[in-house]
Amino acid sequence: MHEYGTSDFRFADPAARHIEEKDIPAVIELFKLNYGDDYAIPEFYDERWVKRGIYSDHIIWLVLEEAGEVIASGACVLDYGDANDQIGELGRLVVHPQRKGRGLGRRIINALLDATDDTVEFAFGEARTVHPLSQGLFEKAGFAPIGFLPQTYTFGESRESFVIYARLYGNGPALRRTAAPPRVIPEVAPLARHVLAAFGLTDALEVVDDCDVYP
Questions:
Q1: Burial code of 33-53, b = ≥16 C-beta within 10 A, e = fewer?
Q2: How confident is the model over 174-191, as a mean pLDDT?
Q3: Which domain holds residue 184?
């Protein structure tokens, strides 16, 4: 398989391609069509901010285009944690409201993971609790809910909570099956068991009253 970013790379989905400067107005319009003017991250409406994301070495930002129209957007941020952690944060996910129900969200996620190749073993993203479509997008792509962020972002005059979804890719499941059981404090154990079970991994834990912090 050819590496993403080389002239020989081809997406499995013919509608997928890297975002370009000419797409900035169309992507901003997708967010406005879905969220109006009160989106919690106003930077998404800033053309200069979007442009920086296009050229960032740490972001893979893609669009789906059909008949000359940008109908979906999605990005994978690769600088979350250390590079050796092989973590990818999925975001900037948006689908044209008149094209929903066609699996475009799942397609853009698959294209993003196609582009990351073996560099991402743990992918995660956030979904609004009041937006079932965004939750369904992750679930249809094989992601599992692993966390909850209460009253995290402001939308207009109200605050909203988010669900964290995640999925293991590549060697991720095998490496975590052979690793030593996680050591957690009692307060974390219920959540840790839920997350491991969601990934189809053993829920064996070493519960201790005190443990070393992550370096």
A1: ebbeeebeeeebbeeeebeeb
A2: 79
A3: 180-215
Distance CA 5, CA 7 (A): 7
> Do the domain assignments include residue 163?
yes
* pLDDT confidence of residue 215: 57
pTM of the model: 0.83
Last residue of a domain, one of 170, 189, 205: 170
Residues 6+ apart with CB under 8 A from 180: 206
Scanning 21-68, the segments in alpha helix (DSSP H) are: 24-35, 47-55
- Does residue 135 register a pLDDT over 90? no
CATH number at residue 47: 3.40.630.30
Residue 101 lies in a domain: yes
Q: Domain tally for the chain?
A: 2
| 142 shares a domain with 98 | yes
DSSP letters, 94-149, are: EE-GGGTTSSHHHHHHHHHHHHHTTS-SEEEEEEETT-HHHHHHHHHTT-EEEEEE
Sheet bearing 87-95, strands edge to edge: 16-18, 59-66, 69-77, 87-95, 122-128, 158-168, 144-155
> 107 lies in a domain?
yes
Q: Which two tokens stand for residue 58?
A: 């740490």
Cβ partners under 8 Å of residue 178, min gap 6: none
